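Hi, here's the filled form for the chain we discussed.

Project: internal
Contact: R.S.
Residues: 199
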Amino acid sequence: MADHIEPLERLADMFRRLDGVGKKSAMRYAFCVLNFTENEAREFAEAIMAVKTELVLCKHCQNISDTEVCSVCSSINRNKSVICVVEDPRAVIAIENTGHFGGTYHVLHGAISPMKGVSPDDLKIHELLTRLNTEEVTEVILATNPTIEGEATAMYLSRLISPLGIKVSRIANGVPIGGDLEYADEVTLRRAIEGRYEL
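And the returned structure, exactly as it came back:
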C-alpha cells in the first residue's frame, strides 16, 4: 500500500540514501515521520537544514564545527604540538570518546584512492602542511583507517612529513579485546606484534 503513496515513498527513498539503510528500514523511518506532529516534523526538517547551513570547517583542523575555530583548536587545555590525522569527523568523535587523547586533530575528509578517483589534491593535505610549517608541531599521529586506502594515505603523508623533522607515528592496531588469535588474519596479527608494548 505504502509503495503507491507518493509522499511516503519519496521520503522512504530519501532515507535509503543513508548508509546502511535498506528498503524496509527506510519505510519504517518514513512511517515514524508520518507519526510526528506537524511541529516535530518541522523541527526534524530544520535540524537537517541546520547541518547544511550552520556547520563549517574549522579553519585550523578542517573538522566540522559551528564556529570558525572548533572547540578542540580553541581549547587552552589541548597540546597543540601533537596532531592526530584522521580521515573523517567521525574518527574525531571516536577518539574523543576514549578520553585519552589531549592533542589536536586534522581531518583529511577522505583517503587516497585512485580506484575511486580520489587523489591527494582532493584531500585537506595542503592545509595540514601549512599547519606544520606555521605551528610548533613535534609529532603527527597518522590515524587513518586500516584499509588499503588508509594505509596508502598514511605512507604518502609519512613521506611528506618526515623531511620536516617532525616525528611521525602510526596508531597501533591488531587483535581486539576478546578476540581469538586463531581467527585473526595475517595482517592483523602482524600489526598486533609490531604494535606491542612493554608491560
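Let me know if anything looks off before we file it.
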